[in-house]
Amino acid sequence: MNNSNYLWLLICPIILFSCKDTNEILKPKYKTTIYRGQKGETEVTNFNRKQAEREKSLAETLEKAEEALRRLEDQKKMFYSIDGSERIKEIDVQLDKLMERTQQIINALNETDPYSQGGHEKSLRLATELNDLLFHYIYPVGELIIANKEIKNISADISFDTGSAALTQEGKTAVSKLIQTIAKDIEDWKLYLDQHNENVFNQDEYRTILIVNGYSDLQGTGNVKARAERNQVLSEQRAAAVAAEFEKQLSGLKTKLNLTYNVTFSGQGENLPPQQTDNGKLNNPSRRVTTISMVVGPKILLYID
Asked: Model-level pTM?
């Protein structure tokens, strides 16, 4: 073999190894002992182990990010299975923000070159952010959605006199029982965060959001339109009375529990309440209710900028 041929055999592998695919970096496919690299699969050796570990780290982070996005999509579906009148809008806004940021992380990971030091460091930063996103926001928001699905009913028959919007003592007691659950919810959140070793909420500021909806049955005198109008007004007045009682009782817990709150109310008139079925009768106690959709959580999760 002449010298020129021998020299070419030495140089050729170096050229092939240093050639880099300039196309977009796709999600790496790897096995425990296989290194895919940029030239095809090969066994992991001492020579390529560092590159193989970087490749695997990127792939694992990308899979985790994709799983986080699927979780958020499932949460969105669960959230929109809740009756529109009962949904906490702050949760909706939080879900949109989380989905947007998670997709941005996925895009950034797909554009990351794991074989360079800079690309590896970028991958590690994105992995840290993704982990914080999961434990500080995505998992806790799932808990809020479950709470949002749990609608409480206060019967108008024991909370109001017939045709009246003045809350009875029984009605005030029903509100008090729901108020008492807020302190327990806060303690449960503290336990949850302690178990997950999360100190992002170390300020211990909590927020509760309540949506109060009043409903009526189909009873009343006069024609259908006049009756519906009177029942609409009555349902609004009763919802306002329940909301006012919540505001009054919550004000006493504000400082004690480091709690902020927001209470809104609406009259739904003769509309069918969530989770109720129409028995076809004008006199239907299950329709004479005030519904309460109540969520308690760390303030950072229930705050809109």
From this structure: 0.80
